[in-house]
Prior knowledge:
By secondary structure, the protein is α+β, with helices and mostly antiparallel strands. It has one domain (about 5-130): SCP2 sterol-binding domain (Nonspecific Lipid-transfer Protein, Chain A, 2-Layer Sandwich), CATH 3.30.1050.10. Helix content is about 35%, strand content about 20%. It contains seven helices and five strands. The chain has a five-stranded mixed β-sheet with strand order 3-2-1-4-5. The model has no long low-confidence stretch (mean pLDDT about 90).
Amino acid sequence: MEFGTRPWIAAVVEALNRQPGLPAALAGLGADLALVIEPSPGFPRALAVWGRQAGGRVAEWRVLHDEDELLELEPAYVVRAPWRTWRELLDGGDPVKAALSGRVKVQGDLEALVRRAGHRAVVDAALAAVPTEFPGEGHGGGGAR
């Protein structure tokens, strides 16, 4: 599945919701989050995805047609980075270091997100369950990592 497409996002959300550690990872976080991938070489278009959690699972998500929709949605967190940085994170890069160095921009309570760094295995397991083809790289193996 091609990274960033609706089918890929739906598969990742489904895989996340199957993770037994997801409720603990989400506990105490704000209700919603937006992820923004800024264009960069290899990924020429911006992509913004919004999701809302409820009951320890991702209850709702959508691809935003226009990043300005974030102003209307006012998510608790907006995590933004260029494609190249997201790709590094998908390959196992440290999200805390990326945020503290400014390569990842976070709007919202960064401290709450950092406290959840120990739950990264939940996201990693979900990503590993979804076959991912990255732009410009041809067919990938069994998952994003």
